[in-house]
Amino acid sequence: MKRAAAEIVPLLTLDRAAAKPLYRQLYEGFREAILTGRLGAGQRLPSTRSLAGELQVSRLPVLTAFEQLLAEGYFESRAGAGTFVARSLADPQPASGGQAGGRTPPARQGRRAVAANPGLPLARHEPWLRGWGAFRVSQIAVDHFPLQVWSGLVARHGRNPRASQMLYGDPMGDHRFRETLAAYLRTSRGVRCAPEQILVTSGSQHALAIAARVLLDPGNEVWVEEPGYPGARNALATAGARLVPVPVDEEGLDVAAGFARGPRARAAYVTPSHQYPLGATLTASRRLQLLDWAQRSGAWILEDDYDSEYRYESQPIAALQGLDRDSRVVYIGTFSKVLFPALRVGYLVAPADLVERFAAMREAIDDFPPALYQAVLTDFLAEGHFARHLRRMRLLYRERRGALVDALRSESGTAFQVLGERAGMHLTAILGAGAHDRRISEQAARQGLWAMPLSACYLGEPSRSGLVLGYGGTGIPEILDGVRRLGGLLTSRRAPG
Ligand SMILES: Cc1ncc(COP(=O)(O)O)c(C=O)c1O
Fold first, then answer.
1. Which residue's CA is the nearest one to ligand 1's atom 5?
2. CB under 6 Å to ligand 1: residues?
3. Tell me, which fold does domain 170-370 have in CATH?
4. Whole-structure pTM value
């Protein structure tokens, strides 16, 4: 049944004098109405035009709120039929714990509604994260992975595990693996560490979640880069942190702005080698300012070094952790970019005096990491396969990156400004003022182009619009075709009418 605009209006309270933008108020009003069951799954919504008329607001905030609710999976549109509250929100099991009669939000579908952060979005509902293919961020070149060598090592360790590899292990991880990793981190990344400081995790997301639980109390403020990595924000927020967005510029995190906005922060999350998503390298002076702040205020620095091995015009930038003389930095790394994300192996380097606390937290959460891939990775690194793989992939990704940058720069009629192309497996194409990047990303996703909108990386109001384009898993012909099609989407938006 279609709900008339007049029936919807009482569900939405708008405060025109509030600092919060109208679209945000509308978005939150709808979300609340759905979560409390006042708007049921499958209900048809009035048109944006009639709703705007009834609310006496312009159509733009209504359209923006609808787009957000569509993107987050609260609404769904059916061709020719209109917009509906998503049918998938019909809760198959009664919600427990304070949501009686309500709906499970998308972020908790399929799970019971226990105490959780109600604002936490489930990333895979975003249209640009629904498929794999051209421009998908974090997609590696799977077809260039040395599967023969890898499967040989998996077979070696799968067939003949040592007895110790079948029993309970060390919460910090296998010692041989940590020795091999420590040697690699010292020589290739400039990290100062002993094997005993390394904690093996299930990816950097897990490492961040553990670090946040060890280092922070609920309610502590944490600086996060703005724009920044949504995954990190979610890990910190679920540990109860209050996020303080700190702007980044061409020198990386603006430390002085951090002092001003979050003087009492207990930690800062940073991607110093290759800022996610804009690509700046944190300059030396900013590194020192940040370390000095951490030392003076007793705060922690969470350094996420996720893809710095892929650097194209220079050597990889040395880790911030290597400059730290006061044990304030927790260094976090992952094999998700340099090998493949489904491996789920990452690690953190804990300050020496906190090793016992990290081990205890790890043990309390999930005992210890699985043995098989630690053994495989130890040999993969020690036998030189890893270094060889990195050399090959650096060349491949450099070539793809070059094709993408050239194509973006020569796409006529568009105004792409390219940022962050010096490293990693993605770059950001900044769009001209007034471009609505979410809308472009949604249209692109309908064509199988998985370009992430830059605005999705902002915690607050986005100050820039752009597309974050992954090229790791995108071959050159697809890159050229994809840029042409993105250019087409942009120019058609600008066409009159
Ligand atoms: C900034 C950043 N950190 C870390 C990761 C990797 O996370 P994980 O190791 O959990 O796969 C990603 C992946 O997209 C990322 O973009």
1. 306
2. 138, 203-205, 229, 271, 276, 304, 306, 334, 336, 341, 346
3. Aspartate Aminotransferase; domain 2 (3.40.640)
4. 0.77
